[in-house]
Amino acid sequence: MHSDRATRTEFILTTTIIPLILFGIAILFDADSSFLQISLALIGFFWIYEVTARRLHDCNVSGFFTLPCMLTPAFILLYFYPPTQGPNRFGPDPRDARNDSPTVEHQDTPPSSRSSKQGRNIPGL
Questions:
Q1: How many domains, the chain?
Q2: pLDDT of residue 43
Q3: At what angle do helices 8-28 and 34-58 cross, to 10 degrees?
Q4: Which domain holds residue 43?
Q5: SS3 for 91?
Q6: Counting Cβ atoms within 10 Å, is residue 88 exposed (0-12), middle (13-18) or buried (19+)?
Q7: Are the CB atoms for 44 and 22 separated by under 8 Å?
Q8: Number of other residues whose CB lies within 10 A of the CB of residue 40
Q9: In whole numbers, what is the pLDDT of the chain averaged over residues?
Q10: Quick one: the chain helix, strand, coil %, rounded to 5?
């Protein structure tokens, strides 16, 4: 089960570039062997399956629908379907910049003793 969410950009890049890379590897190594062809196909399938499940999570849809989505035209709709804004049951919003940097509260320190790197001191605010 996946616990995070994939942005629309990550989904589009993964589902378009990964097949091109795997196709290039197959051409580079002259993939006449069925073992190499099957291996590359499985790698691509599971990679795209994973990012599709995370994109469904971003739309607040269960990953249970990943395989049916991949086998129907609904897959193309994921390129355009809007994400859930803010956190949902699958995790925080990946586009929210506040997820990347922890917030630091300065409640115990008076504003005059803070360094200038920690924030601006604006009188009257």
A1: 1
A2: 92
A3: 180
A4: 8-94
A5: strand
A6: middle
A7: yes
A8: 18
A9: 79
A10: 55, 0, 45
